[in-house]
Design a protein that fits this description.
- By secondary structure, the chain is of the alpha/beta class.
- The chain has 16 helices and 15 strands.
- The chain has three domains: 265 residues, HUPs (Rossmann fold, 3-Layer(aba) Sandwich); 96 residues, Up-down Bundle (Four Helix Bundle (Hemerythrin (Met), subunit A)); 67 residues, no CATH class.
- It is 47% helix and 14% strand.
- The chain binds adenosine monophosphate and zinc ion.
């Protein structure tokens, strides 16, 4: 088994070879917690979650770290606007991040380090760079990285240092030796959060935070460093310079960057104002639909956000969830035990995902299996082997969905519980309330209620069940094995 991975530094696919066989040290640049995140940010969270899941599924012991940037100009500005402290703002949006990314099925990382909890490590790293003449402090108490002293600068992003220097903006208030030098430590202005340091009170620059947290939680050389492609330059180029400058060692073996979620041909971003927060999108589409949509393209390709594209994702997803529901219902009627996943389908899926985590192709495999399972289910007079094959098909489908985190339960959580309130009310009214309040359990209980009514020749009640369910968009089908339901 070899996983091929597109590394930004090598500009092509390479064999994935972690430093220590069987172990993956994986870092994803996490959110800056100053506002609601948008669906472009969500693309990064979801695709990296799936890459982590796939590596784990392929037997690697994955240590996944995603930081929280909880000190930054944007947080300070927001706090000022709202008359709050930067800590309060960071706290609010950190909770928001965990809550909303959880709705989308993003698993928490093994560690979520926060920048403000790593000030001693950050200061230590800056000191190491100063000792190596790769950094200098200024009379005002700022510290800068001396870019021209780090020869491989520009290699990751493919930029030429002379071109960069020509385009660099010079701010006369900064005491830099060279316009390309970037801040490692910033002297604090009055009223800003500050920590003591050998250069006076101040706060860390953004790039150094990630490097210090990586060194602390993963080590000086890691296997995968991820983020959106907007982070390649300057953030990751600078991180690389800081780390390699301080340690003299390789920093990252494989850099991976997700493509943009675009809207009307432009990158969705806070600064352009063309963003849709995850709230906006979840008001119209279910969490599972959003996750499915974000995985429907290869992670490096652009993905176009539009209502039409999300609606198309919802329609496609229905074919999958209907197949899951109808197959489970049929198996229940047939009285068949759980099946086991089929190796050849899992292998097809793995082939797609081993090729640079191609979730688009992996979803294609899932839909081939949906068609196959639908055919298996349509078989008349199933014998034992047909029944077993149907049960195995369902088990395989569930396994593949699980590997992508496409869990139907995502649509049955929290306020978007997924249970139609009208359905729950009707079940109660007619005395068919199961102990478990899921859509599936309520429908089963209504089906049983209807069967009992028919037995008692109470056709009015039996017809009322079918009629009301029909109005709510559920169709009851009486088959040779009993009654199943599907969405109309
Ligand atoms: P931020 O909170 O701005 O640091 O962003 C969190 C993550 O979202 C980073 O990895 C960004 O690169 C990524 N990101 C931001 N905008 C987009 C977009 N439009 N499409 C895909 N990823 C994005
Ligand atoms: Zn970072």
């Amino acid at each position: 088994m070899t996983i091929r991975i597109h590394s930004t530094a090598s500009r092509g696919k390479v064999d994935f070879e972690p430093l220590e066989p069987g172990r993956v040290l994986f870092y994803n640049c996490g959110p800056t917690v100053y506002d609601h995140f948008h669906i472009g940010n969500a693309r990064n969270f979801v695709v990296m979650d799936v890459i982590r899941r796939h590596l784990r599924h392929r037997g690697f012991d994955v240590r996944f770290v995603q930081n929280i940037t909880d000190i930054d100009d944007k947080i300070i500005n927001r706090a000022r606007e709202e008359g709050k402290t930067p800590q309060e703002i960071a706290q609010t949006y950190t909770e928001y991040y965990f809550n909303r990314s959880g709705l989308l099925g993003v698993e928490p990382a093994d560690v979520h380090p926060r920048a403000t909890e790593h000030i001693p490590q950050i200061i230590g790293l800056v000191e190491r760079l100063i000792e190596r003449d790769l950094a200098y402090s200024t009379p005002s108490g700022d510290v800068y990285f001396r870019v021209r002293e780090f020869k491989p600068y520009g290699e990751l992003s493919g930029r030429n240092i002379d071109d960069l220097r020509e385009g660099a903006r010079v701010d006369p208030s900064e005491e830099k030796e060279d316009p390309l030098d970037f801040a490692l430590w910033k002297a604090s202005k009055p009223g800003e959060p500050q920590w003591d340091s050998p250069w006076g009170p101040g706060r860390p620059g953004w790039h150094i935070e990630c490097t210090a947290m990586i060194h602390t939680h993963l080590g000086e050389t890691i296997d995968i460093h991820a983020g959106g492609s907007d982070l390649i330059f300057p953030h990751h180029e600078n991180e690389r310079a800081q780390s390699m400058g301080a340690t003299g060692q390789e920093y990252v073996r494989h850099w991976i960057h997700n493509g943009f979620l675009n809207i009307e041909g432009e990158k969705m971003s806070k600064s352009l104002g063309n963003f849709r927060t995850i709230e906006d999108v979840l008001a119209e589409f279910s969490p599972l639909t959003v996750r499915f949509f974000l995985l429907s393209a290869h992670y490096r390709n652009p993905l176009d956000f539009s209502r039409e594209n999300l609606a198309a994702a919802a329609t496609a997803l229905r074919r999958l969830t209907d197949c899951l529901t109808e197959t489970a219902n049929t198996l229940r009627l047939l009285g068949v035990e759980d099946g086991s996943p089929e190796a050849e389908w899992i292998a097809k899926y793995d082939e797609a995902m081993d090729d640079d985590f191609n979730s688009q192709r992996a979803i294609g495999v899932i839909f081939e299996l949906v068609a196959d399972v639908n055919e298996r289910r349509a078989k008349r007079d199933p014998d034992d082997s047909d029944r077993a094959s149907l049960a195995n098909g369902l088990a395989t489908l569930r396994t593949l969905c699980d590997l992508l985190g496409l869990d139907p339960a995502l649509d049955q959580r929290g306020d978007s519980s997924g249970v139609n309130p009208e359905l729950a009310a009707f079940a109660e009214e007619i005395g068919a309330t199961p102990s478990e309040q899921t859509e599936e359990a309520i429908l089963q209980s209504l089906i049983e209620r209807r069967a009992a009514a028919r037995k008692e020749r109470d056709f009015a009640t039996a017809d009322a069940v079918r009629g009301r369910l029909g109005e709510m968009g559920y169709i009851l089908q009486d088959t040779a094995h009993g009654t199943t339901w599907k969405r109309g």
